[in-house]
Amino acid sequence: MPDSILGSPGLGHIRQWLLGEAKIIASLDLDSDTFQPHTGVQTSILILQKKSLEEKAEEQRTRILRPYNIFMAVIDKAGHDKRGSNIYQRDEHGEEILIEVNETVTELSKTADGQTTVKSAKRLEKVPDDQTRAVPAVFTEWKRNEGIAW
C-alpha cells in the first residue's frame, strides 16, 4: 500500500478501520526504487490477520486494543536502480562480488546412437544487491518465536 495511507493525517479513518478489523502482523517498508522505472510511489507491505469476533467484541467493550508484537523491516535495496538496471553487491574496493555456481549441462552427442551426456560445470555469477531476499527467512523465524502457526 502507498505510504500515504499509513501517514497522512486525512486518512486516519482507514488506519482506525484496519486496527479495528485486523492485527498488523508485519510492516515492510520498501525501497523507493522497488517499483521503478514504472512508478516512484513510496510503498509498504502490511501483513494482516483478521481479528475474531470475540477479539473485536472485547476491544469494543473495553475500548482498549490488546498489545501484540509486530514484525518490522526496512528494505533499503531492491536489486535495481530507478532506471530498472540491476545492481550488484560490491566489496570494500568497489568490485562486484562474484560467487561460484555449479550447474548441470545436458548435451546430445553427435554419435549415431544419440546418447546424452551430462556434465557438471562451474561459472561465476554476480550477487544481486537485494535485501528483499533475506526477509522471508527472518520473518519465518520471527513468526516461529511469536507462536504464529501459519
Structure commentary:
It contains 4 helices and 5 strands. It is an alpha+beta fold. It has 2 domains: 3-87 and 129-146, no CATH class; 95-127, no CATH class. Strands 2-1-3 form a 3-stranded mixed β-sheet, with helices on both faces. A hairpin with a 7-residue loop joins β4 (98-108) and β5. The longest helix has 12 residues, at 135-146. It is elongated, with a radius of gyration of 24 Å. It starts with a helix and ends with a helix. The mean pLDDT is 91.
Strand content: 25-35%
Q: Would you tell me the structural class of the helices and strands?
A: alpha+beta
The neighbouring-strand order within the major sheet is 2-1-3
Mean pLDDT: 91
Q: Indicate the low-confidence ranges by residue numbers.
A: none
Tertiary shape: elongated
Q: How far is the first residue's CA from the last residue's CA?
A: 22 Å
Short overview:
This protein is α+β, with helices and mostly antiparallel strands. It is built from four helices and five strands; from the N terminus they run H-H-E-E-H-E-E-E-H.
Keywords:
150 residues, alpha+beta
Outline the fold blueprint.
Layout: H1 3-7, H2 12-21, E1 22-29, E2 44-50, H3 53-62, E3 71-74, E4 98-108, E5 116-126, H4 135-146
Parallel strand pairs: 1-3
Antiparallel strand pairs: 1-2, 4-5
